[in-house]
Amino acid sequence: MITPRIEIITILRSEFLYLSLDRAPDEERLYQSYRAVADRMQGRRVVIRTLDIGADKQVSYLSLPREENPALGLRGVRLCLRERTLFCEQIRAILRASAHGKVALMLPMVVGAQEVRACRDLIAECMQALSERGQEYDKDLEIGIMIETPAAAILCRELSCEVDFFSVGTNDLLQSTLAAHRQNPHVEALCRKNQEPVLRLIAAAAEAIHERGGWIGICGELAADLSLTQRFC
Fold first, then answer.
1. Pick from 15, 111, 148, 186: CA 20 to 30 A from residue 74's CA?
2. How far apart are CA 34 and CA 17, in angstroms?
């Protein structure tokens, strides 16, 4: 049996490192985990998504507030920009891992350019801190965002000016666009039959990032349809 060669890891979900522990991992533990993946990939791209905890992924040690609809609540960059110490430890770990391979950083649950700029400011601060420590990192690290909210898809042209790549999170984008949870048996048929609005949003995002010379990936259940990946990517 031949093991297939993985050419790119399009999304490494950082939250699983947090879910497996009873306390938040520190910078060193994150760095060692990310570096192990980068080393294994031997120069092939690894896209590390920053923490998207909350919604259906809860950890007790962060003491997140109880929310009526956590999927649309305090998660992704919203949480990370509030918990900046947590966020910066993760950013520094990703930066340090970038010295050992082709590593990219991706931000989840973005709804506008202001969030991206705030994150980039923190990334710049973390780069400066590592430089002062004498630790190496890729100064040209690729930075991207998830297109998983209708807001991000609608603002794709503005957002394409802020980042190097997009990754479409089709599951969240489908649910939020159609206002229908794909695992709710009463409305799941909408998610199977009414995909055209989502396809138009993906097409707009692909066109916007390609015009800027960037690239776009797709994850989620729609990514299994090769005709869609060939059409948009």
1. 186
2. 10
